[in-house]
Batch of 3 targets.
Target 1
Amino acid sequence: MTAGESWGYPQASGAGGGSVVRRILLGSHLRRLRETGGITREAAGYSIRASESKISRMELGRVSFKVRDVEDLLTLYGVADETEREALLSLVKEANVAGWWHSYSDVLPGWFQTYVGLEGAASLIRLYEVQFVHGLFQTEAYVHAVVSRGNAEVQPAEIERRVALRLERQKVLVSENAPDFHVVLDEAALRRPYGGPEVMRGQLQHLIEVSERPNVTLQVMPFSAGGHAGESGSFAMLSFPESDLSDVVYLEQLTSALYLDKKEDVEQYERAMSELQHTSPNPAETRDLLRDLLRRI
């Protein structure tokens, strides 16, 4: 993702986590080659029988790549070295690989696919959640309650598909290269009952157990703290091991989402996250808070 750009309408194919990142990296590399050569987007588009806007989408990693198009662009940009060309063309093939959730496209909104891909490629994920426990930390029973509540008219089979998708996403927590998670849950997310007392007891116990994982730092922002830096609502911040990728802020809405990576935007959310972490009880105190909530149910 190029610095200074904001993703206002993320539309993505079913590319895998690494594929999403590779698509963004390839697009960024092509942009640098074009700018170094002093070539306009219009000229680049003409060379591959496409529009200027198509070149823009390619450079932002928002669309898949055709080998022929990249070959023609590399020729236009003066890349003659076969080793460099082959490396970039190999990246094209990797960027077009379908992700594991491709089979869930019937229940996965197109605007959310980019996030799932980036989530699987991140090295650090920072989260603040207000409404309910974040999806990666939900028990199966809690997932059922949340999905059913938000989709009262959906057929049971589709609900099961959505539950299965969320549980599949949770494998990122225990994957070989699992990212580090820094999570702040507002106490409201724990007080709002989903599925009844038994479900909530299971969910709170699960949070206690998950919070002890070495790659998870879990804190709860208590009501007693009063006002705090999370006043604008839930958000996620994703960081990547690739130096070419800037941090991304993800803001989910009812029917779409925003992906922000402008430096000034990211810095504001970093300050908010740091303040949330500083103000919230530490992980050990948070476990005590969770145990107290568990006893009260």
Target 2
Amino acid sequence: MANTSDLISGVAERYASSLFDLAQEAGSIESVQADLDRFQAMIDDSADLKRLILSPVFSADDQFKAISAIVEKAGLAGLVGNFLKVVARNRRLFAVPGIVRSYRETAARHRGEVSAEVTSAHALSDQQQAELKAALKGVTGKEVAINVTVDPSILGGLIVKVGSRQIDTSLRTKLSSLKLALKEVG
């Protein structure tokens, strides 16, 4: 039996690929990414929107009506607005975060960049982001597009994922390692 996250990932990649193809034809790859990023920020900032997207208890019609109203109110017209309505109509809203992530990766590859997912305990300044991009460019040899997520639970440091590699310098992980080491000693 297939893993649920693999199924969601597959759905997300197919939808993101289709959206990317449409955006490429329309010459609007960057504006579509900006609209998707805005919508993802709305999801991150609203527990109600997150519940609408992830909960299976809402009917396709309810999801479609809600997404249509949100898209209109947020001014997400055109390709992204229509795309989100199709996703809602097809009962695939649960895959939207994966679609956004997959679209970012596809757009970055198209630009000759690699995509990095960065988790930080606090928001990074523009200078910190520039320094991180430069350091990652030195490691990967390519331009790096970073997507920063703030997660105060990591306490400090960063978690950086580039492709299949992950670098975890978070304080939470270091404390967990220390706790484990102390248990082994005592």
Target 3
Amino acid sequence: MSTATPTAPTTVTVIGLGNLGQVLARAFLDQGHRVTVWNRSRGKADALVALGATVAPTPQAAVEASELVVVCVLDYTTVRDLLTPVGDALAGRAVVNLTSGTPGPARELGTWVTGRGAAYVDGAVYAIPQTIGTPEAFVLYSGDADAFAAYRPLLEPLGSPVFVGADAGLAPVHDVALLSGMYGMFAGFFQTVAVGRSAGIGAAEVTELLVRWLKEALGALPGFAAEIDAGDYRTDTSNIDINAVGLANILAATRAQGVGVDLLQPLHEVFQRQLAEGRGSESMARAIESLR
């Protein structure tokens, strides 16, 4: 693969100019790099051209224009549809794929790109487009470690870069894991608001209190993680017995308010399986064993 001089301007192509692709291209332009862009809808490139970007007429020309090709499109099928016809042009280049996807397709794409003589890095972006380049943003990368190291200075301004391993599927695995936690939080939020509204409590009012409480509750997670990694669930505090009873009371009270328990019932069922195994005195973190 081609290696970049970290401090020198680099040729970089951005394929896909949705909300995220637009911001990525702007960030590269702001760094002084020579940026080529391509998008199915040519009009999305106009603002970037005004900032100094060059529009490639075809995906082939877009790939040939740069040593680094950053792809940010709808899904991995679209990535393959765009790159397959131009596979021969990938040789000697690095492909950084920031398209959201899952581990299996990421590994397949990585193998395919590598087979064409290019380096492959998969990425998962943790930022909304407006926060790209701010301290709040971070990006997970996996795949070719040498390519990541070579282009890290170019990628760093997008968000704090974290390399999670040489297996191209590891960034998507992390992505699935972290987004699962996010959706679990949203599920709890929806349940909170539904119960509050059943008693005439406004969503904004109960959310203010929820955020305050969650900031405290988050402190328990590193301790739970340590228990899970060690496989040692002995505890004198938050055991499954206590939490199963507490959650059962919450479910009963929620039903009494006329609110569904679809979002919380599955967790109670996990607690019940642990109780059936005689694990009631152990830490609530042991619930994870019912998911394996």
